[in-house]
Amino acid sequence: MAQRIPQQVIDEVRERTDIVEVVGQYVQLKKSGKNYVGLCPFHEEKTPSFSVVEDKQIFHCFGCGKGGNVFTFLQELEGLSFPESVKKVADMEQISLGVEISTEPANENAGRQQPLIALHEKIRDLYHHILVNTKAGEEALAYLHKRGLSDELINEFKIGFAPNQRDFLVQVCQKDRVPEDVMARSGLFIQRDDGRFSDRFYQRVMFPLNDARGKTIGFSGRLLQTKDFPGEDQPKYLNSPETELFNKREVLFNFDKARNEIRKQGEAILFEGFMDVLAAWQADIKIGLASMGTSLTEQQIMAIERITSHVIVAYDGDKAGLAATDRALAILGAHSRLSLSAVTIPEKLDPDEYLRKYGAEELRNLLQHGRQTPFVFKMHYRKKDVNLDNEADRLDYLNGLVDELVKVQSPVEQDLYLGQLANEFNLTRDSLKQQLRQARQTSRMERRQQTPQHSNNAAMITVAPKPVLTQQEKAERMLIYRAIHETSVREQLVQQEFQFIHDRYQELLLYLDSYMMVHGQFVLADFLNYLKEDAMKQLVIDISVLQMSEDSNEREIYDLMQVIAQSGIADEIKQRQKEQLEARKTGNQQRELELTIQIIELTKRLKQA
């Protein structure tokens, strides 16, 4: 039976955990002053507005406003409940909780998805069992062994086999009493017009597709052609359809396993297919990723950007692979934060074939030392289909390369390529430089024309502007900031029964005072756990990141209290004036006189304050 985690265990987990280390597994962080900054994982952005404050053990995004401690981060990013987030952090730090954690969903959406994830992971394990332990999987296992995959690798990636039986999973789900609506929503079945189900995947080697948490959310099935099942009318690869779990635009194969290694090595390798990623893994290259098809999406690129700034494109070496490399470099090149390289696999092979032909050491050597800059790749790639003996083709080729040279940021690199082109085509550097200047000017004009369109792009996620605070509410936040960091200020406010204008600040002061009575010492990350309401937690985060001097003085506290007090009295005067107007309209002279006296008294207090 699930139990509540003791508070002392939660405290121990939090105290032994560095939030920078945890967040750094999901976001590429760079030191900036006392803090660390990176691209926010909660919304799309080009310029980093996400900050991790190491000394306070909190994170905060100035763009979308999200913030909290290490537990909040995992809750928000992975949809975990609070106990699940504590357990995940404890596992990272190898701390035993000593209790069973409830798997109760953190929110309604997570609760709706939970049975789908459970079904996918159950089916994943079943397919894997069939592959490695049954006669039905023998041919598929032999095929994988022939492709060079070891049993260890097959187990690591839980590769499986879907047998040639259209009602295999249907029978399994019916036996386990899986609700029909879960079956219909899973994408694992095709539902006929009469309501009956049949298996979507059959006679296929099954590759589980995981989300960033490592949860299986879909499958890619590779057709296994045999004597008994030639499958000539079947697609070679069949992926799960779009479901509430699986969105192919967001998924990168092996992202969950490669993420930490990519962060450590500072680079990721993009391959064209799953087998290439697996081949690289077997060669001890564990930073490989593959998209669902060769067309990269904004979501996939943003996910990569958050964990590294260097991407190597290592697609197949055939004509289609080179064209895909060219497209990928163009798409990735639009993201100025990424530095790029390309590797061309010799002999028109793919990385998997290259490994099997030349071995792991040669593949590692090629991926490490066979890298080209995007410009050098384009210089060679575009030469393949051009007749350089033809003057028009030669000019088109050179003009295209000069346009590409505009995108090269390094002046030294630009000068090097200008020299190579001048020597190869017997041109002067000056003529090429003049052409480059013209191309740069044209590029600037095109960017200016495109800017309004880009800003209205419906595909971009925009962050709602934050409400503008009044001078009085700014004073309330600053006073609470001082009360959080200075015991004397908090005690002064409590003893004087100071009244804030807005109830949420009054409530926050009460929470703060009660917390300090129990704990004696303020720890921001712990205080966030103490608060129950998300809105209150967010308010504390917003206040905690205010830029204020280290210590206050009596004059500052007095001025803040005066701003708040005067505003409160001014609001009372306005209210009395409204009531006075109503009394005059109704002819209630007695009430009008009483309110006049009250307004005079309040006005005196305002002047004295």
From TrEMBL:
Residues 266-346 form the Toprim domain. It holds the Pfam family Toprim_2. Residues 422-449 form a coiled coil. CDD domains: TOPRIM_DnaG_primases. Its cofactor is Zn(2+). It is an enzyme of class 2 (transferase). It comes from the Bacteria. Binds 1 zinc ion per monomer. Signal peptide: none annotated. Keywords: Coiled coil, DNA replication, DNA-binding, DNA-directed RNA polymerase, Magnesium, Metal-binding, Nucleotidyltransferase, Primosome, Transcription, Transferase, Zinc, Zinc-finger. It catalyses: ssDNA + n NTP = ssDNA/pppN(pN)n-1 hybrid + (n-1) diphosphate. Its EC number is 2.7.7.101. A zinc finger (CHC2-type) spans 40-64. RNA polymerase that catalyzes the synthesis of short RNA molecules used as primers for DNA polymerase during DNA replication. Belongs to the DnaG primase family. Contains an N-terminal zinc-binding domain, a central core domain that contains the primase activity, and a C-terminal DnaB-binding domain. HAMAP family: DNA_primase_DnaG. Monomer. Interacts with DnaB. This is DNA primase. It comes from Candidatus Enterococcus moelleringii. The gene is dnaG.
